[in-house]
Amino acid sequence: MGGRYIFDFRTEFRKNNGANMILPTDIHTLDSFRRKTKQHVERLQSTGRPEVLTVNGKPSVVVQDAVAYQLQNEKMAVLEALAESVKQADAGKVRDARKAVQKLLDELNVR
Question: What is the reported pTM?
């Protein structure tokens, strides 16, 4: 497995039609966000997509709905765990699943 990606970003991009990419409709000025905060928050919550807020025409901050942010963090945690698993497997740190489960059951005194 060494050197191969377990998550192909190009394939995911095509499957989601770029749903994870920042679109021109996701870019707004900070002044617009200040003036129309309620509308922006409603859009953030209904779409789950982040907004890039600009200052003087340059990207400054990203604003995201709390639920979407939590889901993103959970996905990242899974990807990090998978990457660590691949790293351990590449290093030969593997165990037979039956033996590992049995060891856990023994340690927990579960029969």
Answer: 0.61
DSSP string, 54-69: EETTEEEEEE--HHHH
Whole-number Å distance between alpha carbons of 10 and 6: 12
CB neighbour class for 53 (10 Å; exposed up to 12, middle 13-18, buried from 19): buried
List the pLDDT tens digit at each of the 111 positions of the chain: 344 444 454 555 455 554 567 888 899 999 999 999 999 999 999 999 999 999 999 999 999 999 999 998 999 999 999 999 999 999 999 888 899 899 989 999 876
Other C-beta atoms lying within 10 Å of the C-beta of residue 51:
22
The domains located in the chain, with CATH, are 9-107 (3.40.1620.10)
